[in-house]
Amino acid sequence: MALLYKRWDEPRSLFGDLAVLVFLLTQCLDGMFTYLGISIWGPRIEANPLIVSAIDAVGILGGVGAAKILAITFGIVLHLRRVHNLVAMLSVVYVAGAILPWTALFLTN
Length: 109
Known about the structure:
The protein has helices at residues 14-41, 49-58, 60-80, 84-108. It contains four helices and no strands. It has one domain. It starts with 13 loop residues before the first helix and ends with a helix. By secondary structure, it is mainly α. It is elongated. Helix 1 packs antiparallel against helix 3 (60-80).
């Protein structure tokens, strides 16, 4: 646990700032790609059933927007808690699990 958490009184770190910036960028890209993909192929192209349920409930913009705002909020909270390694790891997971698959889908169709 010591590798994931730092004390509040420690100074800001360049790694932490870059990690949260990359996280925010991946969230924005995922939101844009999800919106574009659903606009083209319909809501069933989305692999996350929670996002599909949110889209069914409040529409594409509201569902995707709410999910991205929630994810960004949690990422910023982790950044403020100095859990920079986890924020960086989540960015990598989003790139591998969301950005690359959407990019491949757009490039092949």
